[in-house]
Amino acid sequence: MYIVVYDITCDNRRNKITKLLKGYGRRVQYSVFECVLSIAKYQELQLKLESKLNLTEDNVRFYPLSQHTLNGSKPEGSVSELRRHQVR
């Protein structure tokens, strides 16, 4: 499981990145996605992102979550699907 966050100021690029990420995970906040990715899918997404980003202006970060971290997570507000997923 990865938490993917981004800060992209250009509306056009941000919309493209959002659309791309929706194909890999679930949007949980405006610029935050929860993504369950195999190593192959993680690498695939990295390549696709690199082709769409302006690397001098945009910022995308991947935060891997271990099963231990997922087990200790406590979502507040809208119910998160974090606990449904297994980290592979």
Structure in words:
The protein is 35% helix and 23% strand. It has 88 residues and is of the alpha+beta class. It has one domain (2-84): Alpha-Beta Plaits (2-Layer Sandwich). The protein has a four-stranded antiparallel sheet with strand order 2-3-1-4, with helices on one face. A hairpin with a 2-residue loop joins strand 2 (26-29) and strand 3 (32-35). The longest helix has 14 residues, at 39-52. The chain starts with a strand and ends in a 17-residue tail after the last helix. 14% of the residues are buried.
Task: Set down the secondary structure blueprint.
Blueprint: E1 2-7, H1 11-22, E2 26-29, E3 32-35, H2 39-52, E4 59-64, H3 67-71
> Quick check: average pLDDT?
85
Order of helices and strands: EHEEHEH
How would you characterize the largest beta sheet?
4 strands, antiparallel
Radius of gyration: 13 Å
Q: State the CATH architecture.
A: 2-Layer Sandwich
Looking at the structure, the CATH topology is Alpha-Beta Plaits
| Poorly predicted residue ranges | none
By DSSP, the count of extended strands is 4
CATH class: Alpha Beta
Q: Say what oligomer this is.
A: single chain
Tally of discrete structural domains: 1
State the helix count. 3
End-to-end separation in angstroms reads 8 Å
Q: Which bin fits the share of residues in helices?
A: 25-40%
Overall 3D shape: globular
Question: Going across the major beta sheet, what is the strand order?
Answer: 2-3-1-4
**Strand residue percentage:** 15-25%
